[in-house]
Specification:
The protein has an eight-stranded mixed β-sheet. Strands 8-7-10 form a three-stranded antiparallel β-sheet, with no helix packed on it. The protein has a single domain (9-145, 179-222), classed as Jelly Rolls, CATH 2.60.120. It has helices at residues 47-59, 74-81, 89-106, 166-169; strands at 9-10, 16-22, 36-41, 64-70, 110-118, 133-140, 145-147, 178-180, 186-190, 204-205, 215-222. The chain has 223 residues and is an alpha+beta fold.
Length: 223
């Protein structure tokens, strides 16, 4: 069932931007709505996928693979990239489905595929991506965080923070709720290279560090 769509964010320019979520994958098509900055498919991973991911995380010390995955050879290309890992059929099948959905949704012949095992935050500061749209999903560990608020001061992003922490820089009021993805969730994040979204890309970050936690993160990008 699709959740009610609620307007959560209005930029200082008056352009409405919002996030939408549902427990069905067709929510991802809402990314084509000019007012939507983030479309979130809330899903539960199967026991088979969880078991493969747990085994991998418990035995692996490193993974950082980047590749171009061809739309006509998705599963073969992913198997080739993951052949030196313990990630098996359930994980590869699920990942292949995500790549196929991304290719179909945006009519792509190939996608930029990156999978990483992280034990430290990759992008701990709030930021925007200078891409058209990025798919993000975490198979284990905390998920990506983002801001939905009508008082964001985007001039405080990056160098505009003057070296201050996000909570101290004035980027957002102290009472703002930070939204978080859960493990298994799939999100499309609209970036500043999406036509018409140059000044209103979704503001997001890696989750705060938890000692001993490992995250298995997959991202897909336009080539």
């Amino acid at each position: 069932m699709q959740s009610q769509t609620v307007i959560k964010d209005q930029t200082s320019t008056g352009s409405i931007r919002r996030s939408v979520s549902a427990n069905e994958p067709n929510i991802l098509t809402d990314i084509y709505d000019d007012t939507v900055n983030l479309a979130l498919w809330q899903r539960d991973l199967s026991d088979e996928i969880k078991a493969e991911v747990t085994e991998f995380i418990n035995t692996a010390s490193h993974l950082d693979r980047s590749a171009f995955i061809r739309a006509q050879h998705i599963e073969d290309d992913i198997r080739d990239e993951l052949k030196r890992t313990t990630l098996g059929d359930a994980f590869i099948s699920n990942t292949s489905e995500l790549v196929d959905m991304f290719c179909t949704l945006f009519d792509l012949d190939q996608v930029g595929f990156r999978i990483r095992l992280l034990d430290l935050p990759m992008c701990p500061r709030f930021h925007i991506d200078r891409v058209p749209c990025r798919l993000v999903t975490t198979f284990s560990g905390q998920g990506t965080q983002w801001l939905d608020d009508n008082n964001l001061d985007r001039s405080k992003l990056g160098h505009g923070s003057n070296g201050l922490d996000d909570s101290e820089s004035g980027l957002y009021p102290t009472d703002v709720h930070i939204e978080s993805m859960n493990a298994g969730d799939v999100a499309l994040l609209k970036g500043s290279a999406w036509i018409g979204n140059e000044e209103t890309a979704v503001v997001h970050r890696s989750p705060p560090y938890r000692s001993g936690e490992k995250r298995l993160l997959l991202t897909l990008d336009f080539v």
